[in-house]
Every structure is written in C-alpha cells, then in structure tokens.
Amino acid sequence: MVTRRRTVSNVGLPLVAGAALFVGGWIEGVPRVEDDLAQRLNEWLLVEGFVGVTSSFDGQDGTLHCESPVEDYYLNYALTEGARTWGVRQLSADPSCHGDASVTTQPPATTISPSTTVAPSTTASPPTTVAPPTTVAPPTTVAPTEPVVAAVFERGTYLLRGTVADELQRNQLLLSAASVVRAENVFDELRVDSSSPVTADIADALAALVRATPPNLVSGESGFDGTGIYSSGVFRDDQSRRAFESVAESLGVEASLTERPAGAACDAPALAAQLNAEVAEQAVQFEPGRATISVDSAALLDRIAAIANQCAGGLTITVTGHTDSTGSDVDNQLLSERRAAAVVDALVERGLSPETLVALGKGEAELVVVDGIEDPAASRRVEFTVVVTDSEAP
User: Fold this and answer.
1) Are 107 and 91 in contact (CB under 8 A)?
2) CA angle, corner 185, sides to 179 and 188, nearest 5?
3) Phi-psi category of residue 190: left, alpha or beta, with phi > 0 → left and psi -120 to 50 → alpha
4) Per-residue model confidence as pLDDT tens digits over 335-351
5) How far is 101 from 94, CA to CA, in rounded Å?
6) 279 and 204 within one domain
7) How many CB atoms lie within 10 A of CB 269?
8) Which of 193, 194, 205 is nearest to 135 (CA)?
C-alpha cells in the first residue's frame, strides 16, 4: 500500500485558487498562459485519439479547430472532458467542427480532477501535431536507484520526489499531476535547489509524461536521472500503449512498457489484500441510513478503481456491504445490498467492466465485535473478495 504523504493541498500550492494566481507568478521567458493551456489540451486530444483536432486560447477560453467535421457524440465528449483540463474556463468548437454553429461547454465546478472516462474512439490513430520541447537530453530507459526527479503513479496516487531547480518547476509538476488525479491523491516530496540539473525543457517534458500516464497506464514512472529522461509502466491495452508511446516519442523519450496481466496471471489474493487495506485505512463513507456515497470518498474510490484495474480481466471482484445492528434485519439487509451496488456503480464509472463486479449484501450477519461488544462504526463496512474466473492468461 502506498504510504500516505503530505498532499498538494498541505504545502500551500494554489490548486483551488485558480489559474490566474499561478500564471501571475510566472517569470519572464515562460510561455503565455494561452500557449500552456493549448499545449496541455492538445496533448490530451492526442492521448484521446482525436485526429486533426487542435485548440487555441484567448486567456482561459479555448476553441477547438477541426480539419473536418466531428460527429456530435465525439465532439461533445471532447468539449465536456477537455473543459476539465486544469485552468480552462470554458471550451467551444468553431464551425469547422460542428456544422455551421459553435457549441460551448462550461467546465464542471471542480476542474482539478477529471473523471475517469473511456476514450471515445477505439480506431483513431493518435494525432502528431503537438510540438514538444526539442532540447531534452538523450533518454535512458532504465530508472536509476535515486533519480534527480521522478513522478511515480501507482494505485491511483502520484508521488513526486527528488530535486528541481525552482518553484516554477515544482508547481508545474504538481499541477500536472493534479490535472489527471484528484489533488488528495498527489503526494509532494519535491525539494527546490538552484543547483539541480533539471532545466525548463526537462521539466516541460516530464510534465507532459505526468499528464499522459493515468489516462493510458495502470502504473508508471517517469523521471530524469541526470543524463536523460526515462519512462516505464504497465499499459491498459494496445490503444493506450500507442497513445503513450506517441507522447513519449514526440518528446524524444523511449518508453519501456509492459502489458497488464489477466486471468491466472493476476495475483488474486494480493489484489484483494490491497483493496481491503485501502478500505481498512479509510472506510467508504455513506450518507446516514442511505446508500448514497459521500463526496468525501471520491479520492478513495479513485484509488480502489486503480488497484482493481491492475488486472485486465479474467477475475470476479465481489463488493460486500455490511451494516451495524441498528434497525431491523430486513432493512439492514436491503441497505447493505444497495450500498454494495452503489460502490459497484462508482467503480464502473471509473472504468471497470461491469461484468467483472458483483454486489453482495450481508446486512448485520457479520458484525464486528470487540471484547464482546459490537463496534458499530467498524461493522458498517465494505469488503472485497477476488477470484480467478479465466485460467487462460492473454
């Protein structure tokens, strides 16, 4: 289990204060906010497989430009999900994308953490129009024991560690991580030292790799070892592998990627242990007496989904709900079933296959008793079991 470290919100980083505060501190020579937003959104479009679609910005207001019209479903996806890019106030499409009328989509109230969404196209080739930095040092593909700086994505969390040259680089990496996972799941161990060999170009390339990792890899690490940039990880499927490799190659980095296991190749007991360790440390919270999951559990559910996604399939994950003894047996049984189903729905929303998940309720049948006395808070819990259903590895 990933050790909890100080998160972005605990180190004074202005993640919620808005893009203006961050941009206001930029020093001379740093690209304008429009260029930064366009670069990050174009990279996202590349990762999602939109061919011939680029963006431009006027302040924080963006416009999509298309070489040819895009079907309404995919255009709405690009507008809705693209608007979640950190710093974007609103996103619209010019007539080249959507017939003879533009479409505008406001971003959601919380724009730091985009929702986990399946890419709209499974056949489109990634575009190659993003212009990455061209002065990055030659890459290496094997991570050293102690890199100068590294970004480690594992089990739904980002750990940033090592040394950067200034606060601008530090903020850039932290904001990039917080644009693809919730801020609560970003852990900061970065140090600032003006003698660090990390240049602005290296920081730009690492930030791009940080943003490309969670949409495509179930786990991964990118960093700079003092000689070159390295990147490695476990990819979701062939499309995500191609998308990540396209980003890496555009930056001059050779990514070392492996495929996630499936069926008997997965360690089902270890996977169950990881899932149950998460909910043992922080329980899934529900509204009192209801099956509605509290918004405070969103980051936890992100981590649970990321752990479950370590295996490609061939497993059944059973989500079991439990209640305390307050109320009737019948009501508690129904409540436990509904709460288990709510967790399953939340995991499906985060990209898990519904065929992999089963909801089970046990009501008050398995209370947690300490020294002969029920512990109601501990009794109200969710547990996971994992079994292999497909003995054939891919």
Assistant:
1) yes
2) 90
3) beta
4) 999 999 999 999 999 99
5) 7
6) no
7) 12
8) 205
Instruction: Give the three-state DSSP class for 115.
Output: coil
355 phi/psi in degrees, rounded to 5: -70, -20
294 in the same domain as 343: yes
Q: Contact at 8 Å (CB) between 377 and 333?
A: no
What is the pLDDT, as a whole number, of residue 7? 57
Q: Report the CATH number that the domain containing residue 362 is assigned in CATH.
A: 3.30.1330.60
Q: Are residues 138 and 66 in the same domain?
A: no
Which residue segment(s) compose the domain that 38 sits in?
A: 33-105
- Cα–Cα distance between 33 and 4 in angstroms, integer? 32
Between these two residues, 73 and 272, which has the higher pLDDT value?
Answer: 272
What does the block give as tokens for 359? Answer: 């909801």
Q: In this predicted model, what pLDDT tens digit does every residue of 124-169 receive, in sequence order? A: 344 444 444 444 444 444 444 689 999 999 999 999 999 999 999 9
Final residue before a domain boundary, out of 105, 123, 147: 105
**C-alpha span between 246 and 252 (Å, rounded):** 10
Indicate if 228 and 275 belong to the same structural domain. no
179-207 pLDDT, tens digit each: 999 999 999 999 999 999 999 999 999 99
Looking at 211, 240, 259, the residue that finishes a domain is: 259
Q: Do 145 and 213 sit in the same domain of this protein?
A: yes
Residues 6+ positions from 350 with CB-CB distance below 8 Å: 115, 116, 301, 302, 305
Say how many domains are in the chain: 3
The pTM assigned to this predicted structure is 0.65
Looking at the structure, do residues 162 and 239 belong to the same domain, yes or no? yes
The reply to whether 173 falls in a domain is yes
H helix runs in the chain, sequence order: 19-24, 33-48, 72-82, 167-178, 200-216, 238-250, 268-281, 298-308, 329-349, 376-379
Q: What's the CA angle centered on 283, arms 279 and 285, to 5 degrees?
A: 140
Residue 74 has pLDDT above 60, yes or no: yes
